[in-house]
Amino acid sequence: MSRADTEATTPCTTMSCTTEAERAALHHALDLAAAPGVPAGPNPRVGCVLLAPDGRILGEGRHRGAGTAHAEVDALRSATGPVRGATALVTLEPCDHHGRTGPCTQALRDAGIARVVVARRDPNPVAAGGLDTLREAGIDVAVSEDPQLTARAEELLRGWEHGLVHHRPLVTAKLALTLDGRAAAADGTSRWITGPAARAEVHDLRECCDAVLVGTGTARLDAPQLTARHEDGTLRARQPLRVVMGEGEAPALPTLPGAGEALRLRTRDPEAALEDLFDRGIRHVLVEGGPTLAAAFLTAGLVDELIVHLAPSLLGAGPAGIGDLGITTITDRLDLELRDLRPLPTPDGPTDLRLLLQPRTR
Amino acid sequence: MSRADTEATTPCTTMSCTTEAERAALHHALDLAAAPGVPAGPNPRVGCVLLAPDGRILGEGRHRGAGTAHAEVDALRSATGPVRGATALVTLEPCDHHGRTGPCTQALRDAGIARVVVARRDPNPVAAGGLDTLREAGIDVAVSEDPQLTARAEELLRGWEHGLVHHRPLVTAKLALTLDGRAAAADGTSRWITGPAARAEVHDLRECCDAVLVGTGTARLDAPQLTARHEDGTLRARQPLRVVMGEGEAPALPTLPGAGEALRLRTRDPEAALEDLFDRGIRHVLVEGGPTLAAAFLTAGLVDELIVHLAPSLLGAGPAGIGDLGITTITDRLDLELRDLRPLPTPDGPTDLRLLLQPRTR
């Protein structure tokens, strides 16, 4: 077991606590990392803020993708005055290895940084160990234990971390269902099963994922744009890759200025599709449907989380929200673990439910 | 407008507060009214406790059905010593009319009762006005404002009160569904879609309703007992009338010692069935299924509340949990108001959800 492995699971008892100013600066660093200019994909999204002992911000930076400066170096370069004695707030533990750029630990030491506070340890064994190196160099180090900061950092990095461990993209599947499991009425109409709050979340999901995936059936029937839009219909700054997969015929996705690139994958095999997307740098995929595609990913055991928007309505007829799973008897049912449950109230309308679930047997 | 109507909606500002001993005695009176010996049906379930000024219980009573003594008179008769100056705690406002028995207000006055505390006003205009009569006779009166007592009294009396207003039984429908709206797997197996907590609630519902209703399809396929059972399988003390309705063929319900009477209604019309049951004294019906019967009641607008036990499982195929509602397009969907939502955790198993809903347009 390498030293990095040991450190990753052992609490650092020598670490100090963080101040309120540091936590505020870490939130700012997370904002920098989450901004649209920071590409998703195979590199972690990282932000960095340099704080003077009196609380002034001396510099800020972010990592803009493979081959560009890491966030720490970007922040050091942005500083217009001296940074000796400053504190660096970084969303991810500084790297300690020679990749396409030099180790950030060295850059921070060279600049005379006195203290480094991170929101998340680096789970990548190749790059980890940065905090130990810094501490051994006499720099004060801390990992924030603020639950809100931890959650934000985890959320921002989870596609990248999933890729490190599983060598395939993280898969979120989303379904909109009536209480009786219908995706549409008998005549095929489905707008809208769910209310505005549920539909807004779909655009949030599209914005935070690297790619949105639909089957050829959905491409044919719904002619979706697959863009992340604001409530007023305008495009958001970050847009996912738009993917239609399957062997059936399907129209090309509309070409829209500001929309993500469109991709056609001529396979109905979820594993093959994910392999292709992973090779393209995609780390988080949103499977939007329809029922056949969702069923294919569920059957293949390739759904990491399922978000169900459940409308408190009944249709009694119409297409099922989930296609055939190859299940014929009750004991073979696909059980899911309910991770989160909350109502999505609609003004003057029914309250949809949002369920976050994970397949139980994986 | 009669005096009774005015009183029912006007707050009684002259009323005094209740003591802790009185609230405890009211809970006891509710226990008496809810006990298996008190029949459900066309008469309200009422209990009464007589409390001495020093807190001793002097007597207790309950109403055992049409033609028998009211709870107040039953309590007065049960007292072995003098009750002059005592407080009467009654779950429902004492009646003020000459029915098959004399007015309870008179009986309480004659006995020298000094104070009367009730959990619920009488919504029946024929019998109401008891508190006013008592107050005019110089007896101190109070209505408990304790929310727990109010809720218990409402729960106990709601079938009876519904009958007064709507002249048909209150209808609770219950469905057990997977997340994709299935009532069973493709081979027809359905045991068990939901966990023990959901199944225990079904027995609670059977115990508190006057009648349990299934369609001929369910009677054929599931051969249900329709008894209210404890967890160990033994019968509970209170059992509902067991009803199979529909025009199809169905086997007779099993004859079981201790089970409720079995009834066969040869109609598929929910309104006709409810009229028949109301005439038999039934005030609260539990519609247990199957999908066709539930759909018939929903389509007829005759479901007052819908309880859905939603299992976080997927089947992808199998019979739908709700039959055809005659809905063909999305804008005609049947919207429900979500009144309550709670998880029903299963040890080492998936957590079912319990949804309490009411149809929106009634």
TrEMBL record, chains A, B:
It comes from Brachybacterium aquaticum. GO terms for biological process: riboflavin biosynthetic process. This is Riboflavin biosynthesis protein RibD. Substrate binds at S190, R206, L226, R229, E288. Pathway: Cofactor biosynthesis; riboflavin biosynthesis; 5-amino-6-(D-ribitylamino)uracil from GTP: step 2/4; Cofactor biosynthesis; riboflavin biosynthesis; 5-amino-6-(D-ribitylamino)uracil from GTP: step 3/4. GO terms for molecular function: 5-amino-6-(5-phosphoribosylamino)uracil reductase activity; diaminohydroxyphosphoribosylaminopyrimidine deaminase activity; zinc ion binding. CDD domains: Riboflavin_deaminase-reductase. The keyword Ribonucleoprotein does not apply. In the N-terminal section; belongs to the cytidine and deoxycytidylate deaminase family. Binds 1 zinc ion. PROSITE patterns: CYT_DCMP_DEAMINASES_1 (PS00903), CYT_DCMP_DEAMINASES_2 (PS51747). Its EC number is 3.5.4.26, 1.1.1.193. Residues 20-142 form the CMP/dCMP-type deaminase domain. Zn(2+) binds at H70, C95, C104. Keywords: Hydrolase, Metal-binding, Multifunctional enzyme, NADP, Oxidoreductase, Riboflavin biosynthesis, Zinc. Its cofactor is Zn(2+). It catalyses: 2,5-diamino-6-hydroxy-4-(5-phosphoribosylamino)-pyrimidine + H2O + H(+) = 5-amino-6-(5-phospho-D-ribosylamino)uracil + NH4(+); 5-amino-6-(5-phospho-D-ribitylamino)uracil + NADP(+) = 5-amino-6-(5-phospho-D-ribosylamino)uracil + NADPH + H(+). NADP(+) binds at A176, W192, T218, D222, G290, P291, T292, L293, A294, A295, A296. Converts 2,5-diamino-6-(ribosylamino)-4(3h)-pyrimidinone 5'-phosphate into 5-amino-6-(ribosylamino)-2,4(1h,3h)-pyrimidinedione 5'-phosphate. The active site is at E72.
